[in-house]
Specification:
This protein has 1 helix and 6 strands; from the N terminus they run E-E-E-H-E-E-E. The protein has 87 residues and is mostly beta strands. It has one domain: Folate-binding superfamily (Folate-binding fold), CATH 3.30.2270.10. Strands 3-4-5-6 form a 4-stranded antiparallel β-sheet, with no helix packed on it. Strands 1-2 form a two-stranded antiparallel sheet. The radius of gyration is 15 Å and the shape is elongated. The protein binds zinc ion.
């Protein structure tokens, strides 16, 4: 698989480090039970199709990227610098 870093250009995916799904999780309160913390720390949706992910270009420019990738086919749909994403 190859990723197109907006700064460095197309590179082998081994130059990048996968940081995980780019989703905002709601952190449980300090008094939440063990089940709520287990859910927060370990349980994720695992659906087929497009997923927004965070990658860092560790062996390159070090930029954080949001990659939209089809997790079934590994087709890369978009790659954008995370710092340019507006909330
Ligand atoms: Zn780069």
């Amino acid at each position: 698989m190859r990723l197109h870093c907006p700064i460095c250009g197309e590179r082998d995916r081994r130059e990048f480090y996968y940081q995980g799904a780019a989703v905002m999780l709601e952190r449980p309160g300090p008094d939440a039970g063990a089940a709520a913390w287990d859910d927060y720390l370990h349980l994720r949706d695992n659906t087929a199709g497009d997923l927004d992910e965070l990658w860092s270009h560790d062996a390159g420019c070090g930029a954080w990227l949001r990659v939209t990738r089809n997790v079934s086919t590994h087709e890369i749909k978009t790659v954008v610098l995370a710092r340019e994403i507006k909330r």
